[in-house]
Amino acid sequence: YGKNTIKFLRLHREGKKHFVKEVEVCTHLRLTSAHEYLDGDNSLVIPTDTIKNIVLVLAKKNGIPTLEQFAIDICKHFMTTFCQVAYVKTYVQEVPWQRLHENGVPHVHSFICAPDGIRFCEAEQCRNGPLVVFAGIKDLKLMKTTQSGFEGFYKNEHTTLPERHDRILCGELFCKWSYGECKDFDFDCIWNNVRECILEAFAGPPDCGEYSPSYQKTVNSIQMLILSKVSQVQVIETILNNTFYNVVDMKNLGLTNDKEVLVPVETPYGSCACTLGRK
């Protein structure tokens, strides 16, 4: 049991310069006994309102140096403070505030919300067990307008999809990875490196791109590049929810539409998922 969607903004001041972290936290506990379920005995139950207040107090006392460190702080607090807690899991996701720039100059106290992927993390621990940390990015919308196709697929009497050697590849990406044993990691640097790998593998070289024969191959290319470049990542789960576009037929309007006006296919949409890890 626990508390979901604990939302707050943590403001940190260094003179005139301000820093913000707005997060949403979900924290769940499992106790060493189940008396509250079986017998209605609540003597060991930590109220969910108390869980919420602890999260807020930790944000006040420790700040949020990184999402991962904040999740670790929450897990450690419940494990070291309450002997009746057998397991704790914390999820933290960040609102993507970025410092506002005016004529290239960073503003000291103004920010803009730029949703180019939402950062999140999870930390979980069993009593007498290791602390496990996951991180990830979700709602990252990506598109390339060429260098993508889908050909040579299995066909039978139910197949109506035509082969395409030049199509738009568009989708919403979810990536979640595990660190294994956590050490003194620079979580911000690692997260940024993973995000750069995602963009590089999806798009290819900036002057020419790279051909994608399928959404599945694109997912694999992303995972392989991350595992080759970011040594701290042990296992990575990737889901790509696809958005397809159809070319509008403008013959009745007396126009030739050479893939210049397209409409998205809202539903159903495709999806592919894969989990890849080191040996």
TrEMBL record:
Keyword Oxidoreductase in record: yes
Location of the protein in the cell: Peroxisome
Entry's EC annotation: 1.7.3.3
Main subcellular location: other
BP GO annotations: purine nucleobase catabolic process; urate catabolic process
Reactions catalysed according to its record: urate + O2 + H2O = 5-hydroxyisourate + H2O2
Residues annotated to bind urate: 48-49, 150, 167, 216, 242
Sites where the protein binds 5-hydroxyisourate: 48-49, 150, 167, 216, 242
PANTHER family attached to this UniProt entry: URICASE
Name of this protein: Uricase
Organism: Sagittarius serpentarius (Secretary bird)
